[in-house]
Design a protein that fits this description.
It contains 5 helices and no strands. It is elongated and about 70 Å long. The protein binds fe (ii) ion (2 copies). One fe (ii) ion binds next to helix 1 and helix 2.
Length: 184
């Protein structure tokens, strides 16, 4: 018997499950990152994005509804890997001046992953003739992009925190060439 052809609609549904898994994982990770962050502004940014992520999960549930499917998550190995790296930074740089820079970098890796997923899903939703789904995905894509930009700004201020720490701790002087934290 011939295999049933897999169509773009199948791929869309599969990818939706992937990003649904990812958002739920991120929703659990953001409070940990907020707790770990040393800068008040960075903490606030993570808390703000946790709130946005709750709304993004609701939007994905809306897209499942448009498809006539139940919300379902499928393990996303990419987000597992990205968040694992973030967890390593939290452990390895705990209490260190470079911690926040590492947290920003980890968070931007997450945002870039999300931006690629939402851009793809939005385009597929348009091609599949689901403008309402496309609008929901576009709304989230905008939030992810705004978060990424905010993190790029914060990347600069956390470098300043490290510079101040260096002034207070002469041992740190000289061994921290300025690095670029973000290509965002
Ligand atoms: Fe998100
Ligand atoms: Fe995000």
């Amino acid at each position: 018997m011939a295999k049933k052809p897999k169509l773009l609609s199948n791929l869309f549904h599969d990818t939706l499950k992937d990003v649904y898994f990812a958002e739920n994982k991120i929703f659990k990770t953001l409070p940990k990152m907020a707790k770990a962050a040393q800068s008040k502004d960075l903490k606030a940014a993570f808390i703000k994005h946790e709130r946005e992520t709750r709304g993004q999960i609701k939007r994905l549930q809306g897209v499942f509804k448009i498809l006539g499917k139940k919300p379902q998550a499928k393990t996303c190995e990419a987000i597992m890997g990205i968040t694992k790296e973030g967890a390593e930074i939290m452990t390895d740089f705990k209490g260190m001046p470079a911690l926040d820079a590492g947290l920003v970098a980890a968070a931007q890796a997450v945002e870039h992953y999300e931006m690629s997923r939402y851009g793809t899903l939005r385009t597929w939703a348009e091609e599949l003739g689901m403008p309402d789904a496309a609008a929901l995905l576009e709304a989230t894509l905008k939030e992810e992009k705004a978060t990424d930009s905010a993190l790029t700004m914060l990347a600069k201020s956390v470098v300043n925190i490290e510079a101040e720490a260096a002034i207070n701790n002469p041992n740190m002087r000289g061994d921290h060439p300025h690095m670029s934290l973000s290509q965002g």
